[in-house]
Amino acid sequence: MSTLEIKDLHVSIETDQGTKDILKGVSLTINSGEIHAIMGPNGSGKSTLASTIAGHPRYEVTKGEILLDGEDVLEMGPDERAQAGLFLAMQYPVEVPGVTMTNFLRTAKTAIDGEAPKLRTWTKEVKNAMEKLRIDADFANRNVNEGFSGGEKKRVEILQLELFKPKFAILDETDSGLDIDALRVVSEGVNRAHEENGMGTLLITHYTRILNYIKPSFVHVFVDGKVAEQGGPELADELEANGYDRFLTPAAAAV
């Protein structure tokens, strides 16, 4: 059993207009095997939380802690966080010209585990994972994300998730830009990783449609850099029906 703890997290960034506070005291605890959905309007701090957990240098933690099994994540570099068992599926996966998928996946797996996977079993594992995600075998020889469609990039993110076997996955709007078929395939990949590895999942989304396939244990509503409300799956249904208006009124903002 592993635990990811976020305690009273405050995060800011530097802008042309000066320092801007984004997260204003976020506290969450995620255990192995749990799926937590974070929902909220644009600009509420959801993606900032994901990037901060992963170690993006733009975001400055001014107060609070992130602990992984009691270890201080904020003292780790991004690569050390990956080695410790954290994985971020990016909202906008980047292209990596000159690096093939085959080389990237094996190099990353070696860096995370501290030793190279056995080639025969690794090749079979990659092939099987690609087939389940309906990724054409030719993609193994293509450069990472270069010329890929949005849906193909998202499938490659989940391919990494299945192969790297993290303790905790942070999925930053993995459902954005996916048609219904791609959404189903991607969700099946997340569910496989969850069931096979017992990982904890932090799923960031605007919409409930992905929650029809990936069933959350808990739902947290982000508003203005804070958790405004939390509950079970029924909270997502309420948000789908009524939106975020009740959290955005002056009275609610003052609470």
From TrEMBL:
Q: Where are the transmembrane segments?
A: none
> What keywords were assigned to this record?
ATP-binding, Nucleotide-binding
Source species, domain of life = Bacteria
A molecular function GO annotation? ATP binding
What are the residue boundaries of the ABC transporter domain, all occurrences included? 4-249
Spell out the CDD domains in the cross-references: ABC_FeS_Assembly (cd03217)
Protein's UniProt keywords contain Coiled coil = no
Q: Does the keyword Nucleotide-binding apply?
A: yes
Q: Identify its protein family.
A: Belongs to the ABC transporter superfamily. Ycf16 family.
Q: What is this protein called?
A: Fe-S cluster assembly ATPase SufC
Q: What is the name of the gene encoding this protein?
A: sufC
